[in-house]
Design a protein that fits this description.
Layout (H helix, E strand, L loop, with lengths): L3 H32 L9 H12 L8 H5 L2 H34 L11 H15 L9 H24 L3 H25 L2 H12 L7 H20 L1 H8 L2 H6 L4 H23 L5 H13 L3 H25 L8 H22 L1
Membrane topology: Multi-pass membrane protein
Protein name: Cobalamin import system permease protein BtuC
GO cellular component, one term: plasma membrane
Length: 354
């Protein structure tokens, strides 16, 4: 039976979680409102919002002649809005993937990138760019290779772990080994490639939202929207796994099957995102940390809250990337790294003082 003190603590924690999530939604909506007004086109804030409304309600909004002449609706809907929404969905997806992996592996440094999935995607993209070889062709060549290699890395991690017995340490070691392997292959390809091809590979590895589009946004949104309810449905199993394999097994959780399912879901979300954006790091590491520090470790709220933090971080980083240097857009992957490093330095100093 829960005591009165326990009920009060639980009520306070529930209120804190609700306030945190509400605050994140407000911040995210505000950032999105700012982001849609950023760009080289000479559109005011009012013009940008009016163009959004005109696209939502065709024929119901009267646009000034200057906006018609400047094709304001085309600029907002053809270039800006899908980029903003893609940043939101991609940040959300990378963050939930990181929180799931950290929970399954019980390692605060676990993420799709430290486990070699991003390195595998970079290797696949490098093969497509430098050698012109891949499972698809045309504009889908790089995307198809990046996705395929990311999923192959996830399957390899699972297979290697199965051989040695499913466990967090085994999967981490397998992921690190694959990360170095794919990084070595990518480096070799860069050494053999022409200067132009190597430059293209390097830019892809920076991570960017420049090639976002409505179809790509639709694909990523469908995958994330399908995976999140499944993760929330099995959140209790993830909570049990985070306490240890023996604890999870004693509570009736099928440990190996659950670990494989969670890792597959996180890998799929990551692969679908980074095959379109390139490697965007630190979101899957930082967002779960921030969320866990504020609202605790219950994955029923940690997963959606981490997603919102990730969306805020990636959209904020993209806003900085588009405005920091006038006339230039810094790849967003560089900005997320700059934002992530101070946070980890803070964690390092905080733990040292503890």
């Amino acid at each position: 039976m829960m005591t009165d003190t326990g009920r009060q603590e639980y009520a306070r924690l529930t209120e804190k979680r609700a306030l945190f999530i509400t605050g994140l939604i407000v911040i995210l909506a505000s950032l999105a409102g700012v982001a849609v007004t950023l760009g080289s086109a000479d559109l005011s804030v009012a013009d940008s919002y009016l163009a959004v409304l005109a696209g939502l309600f065709p024929g119901a909004v009267d646009l000034p002649d200057r906006m018609v002449e400047s094709n304001a609706v085309g600029i907002i809907w053809g270039w800006r809005l899908h980029r903003v929404l893609f940043a939101v969905v991609a940040g959300f997806g990378l963050a939930i993937a990181g929180s799931v992996m950290q929970g399954v592996l019980r390692n605060p440094l676990a993420s799709p990138f430290t486990l070699g999935i991003a390195s595998a995607a970079s290797c696949g993209a490098s093969i497509a760019i430098i050698l012109g070889a891949g499972v698809l062709s045309g504009s889908l060549l790089v995307i198809g290779n990046a996705f395929l290699f990311a999923m192959l890395a996830a399957a390899a991690i699972y297979g290697m772990a199965r051989l040695r017995g499913m466990g967090s340490e085994t999967m981490i070691l397998a992921g690190i080994a694959l990360m170095y392997l794919f990084s070595a292959v990518t480096s070799l390809l860069q050494y053999l490639g022409t200067a132009a091809k190597v430059q293209e590979v390097v830019f892809w590895m920076f991570g960017s939202l420049d090639k976002s589009s409505w179809p790509k946004l639709g694909i990523v949104t469908v995958v994330v929207a399908a995976i999140v309810p499944l993760l929330l449905w099995r959140a209790w199993d993830l909570n049990a796994l985070a306490e240890g394999d023996e604890t999870a097994a004693s509570l009736g959780v099928p440990v190996e099957r659950s670990m494989a399912g969670f890792m597959l879901a996180a890998s799929l979300v990551t692969a679908v995102i980074i095959c379109f954006t390139g490697t965007i790091g630190f979101i899957g590491l930082v967002a779960p940390h921030i969320t866990r520090m504020v609202i605790g470790t219950d994955h029923r709220t940690l997963i959606p809250a981490s997603g919102l933090v990730g969306a805020v971080l990636l959209l904020g980083a993209d806003c900085l990337a588009r405005t920091l240097i006038p006339g230039a857009i810094i790849p967003v992957g560089i900005m997320t790294a700059f934002l992530g490093i101070p946070f980890f330095l803070y964690l390092f100093m905080r733990r040292r003082d503890a």
